[in-house]
Amino acid sequence: MKFFIDTANLADIREAQEMGILDGVTTNPSLMAKEGITGKDNVMRHYKQICEIVKNDVSAEVISVKFDEMIKEGEELAELDENIVVKVPMTGDGVKAIKYFSEKGIRTNCTLVFSAGQALLAAKAGATYVSPFVGRLDDISTDGMALIEQIVTIYTNYGYTTEVLAASVRHPMHIIQCAEIGADVMTSPLSVIKALLNHPLTDSGLAKFLADHEKAALPVKK
Ligand code: E4P
């Protein structure tokens, strides 16, 4: 399973990249705003900076909601770097834009997906990735992980090549469940990825190994 980091924070992206486990980045307008990135030039510059850190897929979301404007914005984003994946919302215009981009060889990530029907449309339009939002479904007492399972089954049934990118991942068990189900990608904040490192037996085991090593190194009393 590919690990993407869901942030526009350059320090977090650098840290995840240095861990050696990072396969890509997803951003969205809220994450860009959180970093104080506003205005077209700054937004474009920021995506360039992300692409300099991570030589892998970077999802950059269009702000436009009308087909013609989405096309113009998506083409500009795609020109920034070969690793840019144009993120397009799941709307009628969005599906049309995904179809257009896929015919032009521009890769896309269909975002804000909350149902199997939406995922089916994204795949039929030729999306490179589909992003079902697990955590936001959980937030409204709906099983987000069940949607991942449903989409994986549907795509397998028909051999769709669209990759299932589990988004809105909130805790380490979400990551484990995604891997069990067979999601192609998961995207989460750095804190969730780092939570996978932790186990109390690892900590106590390491402390004992180091203490034993120190003891053995002490001079032997005669
Ligand atoms: C997906 O690509 C989104 O950026 C993201 O995963 C949304 O997560 P949130 O529900 O935690 O905001």
Automatic annotation (TrEMBL):
PANTHER family: FRUCTOSE-6-PHOSPHATE ALDOLASE 1-RELATED, TRANSALDOLASE. GO terms for molecular function: aldehyde-lyase activity; transaldolase activity. It holds the Pfam family TAL_FSA. Pathway: Carbohydrate degradation; pentose phosphate pathway; D-glyceraldehyde 3-phosphate and beta-D-fructose 6-phosphate from D-ribose 5-phosphate and D-xylulose 5-phosphate (non-oxidative stage): step 2/3. It is found in: Cytoplasm. The gene is fsa. GO terms for biological process: carbohydrate metabolic process; ketone catabolic process; pentose-phosphate shunt. Keywords: Cytoplasm, Pentose shunt, Schiff base, Transferase. Its main location: cytoplasm. Belongs to the transaldolase family. Type 3B subfamily. The active site is at residue 87. Its EC number is 2.2.1.2. It comes from Spirosoma profusum. CDD domains: Transaldolase_FSA. The keyword Lipoprotein does not apply. One of its GO terms (cellular component) is cytoplasm. Transaldolase is important for the balance of metabolites in the pentose-phosphate pathway. This is Probable transaldolase. It catalyses: D-sedoheptulose 7-phosphate + D-glyceraldehyde 3-phosphate = D-erythrose 4-phosphate + beta-D-fructose 6-phosphate.
